[in-house]
Amino acid sequence: MGGSSVQSGEGTAARPALHYAWIVVAVTFAALLMAGAIRGSPGILLVPLETEFGWSRATVSFAIGVNICLYGLIGPFAAALMDSFGIRRTMLVALAGIGVGVALTPLMTQSWHLVTLWGFIVGAGSGAIANVLGATVASRWFAVRRGLVVGLMGSAAAAGQLLFLPLFALITATYGWRWMSLTVAGVAFALIPLVARLMRDRPEELGLRPYGAAADSPPSAVLPANPVRSALQTLELGLRSRDFWLIAGTFFVCGASTNGLIGTHLIPACFDHGIPEVAGASLLAMMAVFNFIGATGSGWLSDRVDARVLLAVYYGLRGLSLVYLPFAFDTFYGLSLFAVFYGLDWIATLPPTLRLITLSFGRERAAVMFGWVLVVHQIGGALAAYVGGVLRQDLGTYLETFILAGLLCLLATILALLIGRTGRAPVPPVPAAA
């Protein structure tokens, strides 16, 4: 393969200080940060929409649940589209869809408008720029340090979901939820030229090899060109695997306990206890800071420690913290302690989960298979978002919801330790690229 001597080892030219893979990581990080911010913003809309339109919390939670579910469901198809049509094109279409969907939100007058715009349009667009994007970039552009890169990408998605909430809550409290929606749409549109200018699909486009790849390493393998068939064939392979069900089961609990429950209902739960929305959003922002530390550290650990053990520890500690949460609302210090701990644990499950998928199904299939696991993650989030709203409406409290989520996390601890404990049929190889 011709091109630069940066990774090929040809000639004696000195290597540049920065491999282009890190520029791709920076652009991807920015996109994931934005997608996470948009994904987390519906939690701010719960109370204002209840007040202005008289919609019940269950109704608004249903729209958020559709968003969360589609956010995951689109993942494997988005990963397959990236294989067929390129990362950059997929990102540009997704960003345009997100911007249009959010920009039209101020015009809605019926609850089905909310379901259509935030549930379907924004859910699909943000799902295409989600953790499957990070997994695809890590698989294509890195031969080493994949765990660290996945940790960085995961922290971006979660940090965006948490870090911008105080700003969005302040805009909502000062100028109204419509201006908040327009601000979010502007962020989405602003990223389009950045992605168009700097994003690249594969290192081979620039005459490079993946970061850390040996000079004589073979070219990347490719999946079939039909994205739908590729995604469905990968799902069929996963459904025959016991490990797929175990990994997906743990990630179902992950989605239920993070995006679905805490991401959607922590701010309303704070409001129920007399804590203003801006203060509740600040707690989520505090989580974002510690989430970056936790996710990056988890990525580093997942390259060195048994991923099953890491997942068991993460879910066990998460379960205990959720059982503690209902009793933490009495003091802001108790909530702050919860925010610090939960922030460290929020996205820490992502790097070991992707590592287990890669070990079970191979690097070439990892992104699409992770997309299907993410579908289950988002189904868990959608159910938690909706059921949390229904239980709050029927019982007048979130106590039972938080306790139930804690028990689910303890169950996920057991599932994590069972992954890979029995033999499985060898995964068929993927044909190498010409």
Q: Please, how many helices?
A: 20
From the alpha-carbon coordinates, what is the Rg to the nearest angstrom?
A: 21 Å
The separation of the N and C termini measures 11 Å
Stretches with pLDDT under 50, minimum 5 residues = 1-14, 423-434
Output the helix-strand order: HHHHHHHHHHHHHHHHHHHH
Biggest beta sheet summary = none
Structural class: mainly alpha
The level of helicity is: over 70%
Shape: globular
Q: State mean pLDDT (0 to 100 scale).
A: 80
Number of strands: 0
Name the beta content range.
under 5%
Describe the structure.
The protein is an all-alpha fold. Helices cover 76% and strands 0% of the residues. It is built from 20 helices and no strands. It is globular. The termini are close together. The N terminus and C terminus are likely disordered.
Write the layout of secondary structure elements.
Layout: H1 5-8, H2 20-40, H3 42-53, H4 57-73, H5 75-85, H6 87-103, H7 111-128, H8 131-141, H9 146-163, H10 165-175, H11 177-198, H12 227-239, H13 242-260, H14 262-272, H15 277-302, H16 307-324, H17 332-345, H18 350-361, H19 363-395, H20 399-418
Helix pairs in contact: 2-7, 2-8, 2-9, 2-11, 3-4, 3-14, 4-7, 4-19, 5-6, 5-8, 5-12, 5-19, 6-7, 6-11, 8-9, 8-19, 9-15, 9-18, 10-11, 10-15, 12-19, 13-14, 13-18, 13-19, 13-20, 14-15, 15-17, 15-18, 16-17, 16-18, 16-20, 18-19
